[in-house]
Automatic annotation (TrEMBL):
Keywords: Transferase. Pfam families: Acetyltransf_3 (PF13302). Coiled coil: none annotated. The keyword Cell inner membrane does not apply. Residues 15-171 form the N-acetyltransferase domain. One of its GO terms (molecular function) is protein N-terminal-serine acetyltransferase activity. It comes from Microbacterium kyungheense. One of its GO terms (cellular component) is cytoplasm. The lineage of its organism: Bacteria, Bacillati, Actinomycetota, Actinomycetes, Micrococcales. This is RimJ/RimL family protein N-acetyltransferase.
Length: 197
């Protein structure tokens, strides 16, 4: 496993994961202040002042070396426009595990941007860092995130009923995960020649 990783932009075909910048404040505040976006998140809508503090904190998260280290990079479109954020946290160095998450602006949803961004982080996790397992936890009512986990090849491992008291109600938690060997097998099948070719 290769740790003590310092952030560098992760570039895909249509999206780039890059550090948050001060000029992202308006877009990030709109995202985290939107009740529909925050509906299935662990926090209520945030004020512009709260988002400014979070932006400063998360922009400084640039290193993965120990349990609890995290990244919260911006997702940027082909034109460099801010369209959301990814989340990646080391859960255990010894067990080589991490958690992944995402938030995408409503205008950017339905185009595969979040899936591409998540694949960039999974490639980092498995191909560069040598992690064994990456998991995602979500509210099962968030069907878009459930479908994304499925597109990423993540396995549905559990459904915890009324798992937490959140925003005035008991909410369930869904658990999804992907192992390094599953990631490598899926990548191998993507590049293997088709038998009908």
């Amino acid at each position: 496993m290769t740790l003590d990783w310092e952030f560098h932009p992760l570039v895909g075909e249509r999206v780039t994961l890059d550090l948050l910048r001060p000029d992202d404040l308006d877009d990030l505040a709109a995202l985290q202040g939107d009740p529909d976006v925050c509906r299935y998140l662990l926090y209520e809508t945030r004020s512009r002042e709260q988002v400014a503090e979070i932006l400063e904190r998360d922009a400084a998260a640039t290193r993965l070396a120990a349990k609890g280290d995290y990244l919260q990079p911006a997702i940027r479109s082909e034109t460099g426009r801010f369209i959301g954020t990814m989340y990646f946290e080391l859960h255990s160095v010894e067990d080589r595990t991490a958690e992944i998450g995402w938030i995408l602006a409503p205008h950017a949803q339905g185009h595969g941007y979040a899936t591409e961004a998540a694949r960039l982080l999974l490639a980092l996790a498995f191909d560069e860092l040598g992690l064994h397992r990456v998991q995602a936890e979500l509210d099962p009512r968030n069907t878009a995130s459930v479908r994304m986990c499925e597109r990423l090849g993540m396995r549905h491992e559990g459904h915890f009923v009324e798992h937490m008291w959140l925003k005035g109600e008991w909410t369930d938690t869904g658990h999804y995960a992907l192992l390094e060997r599953e990631w490598q097998a899926a990548r191998g099948s993507e590049i293997a020649p088709r038998s009908d070719a």
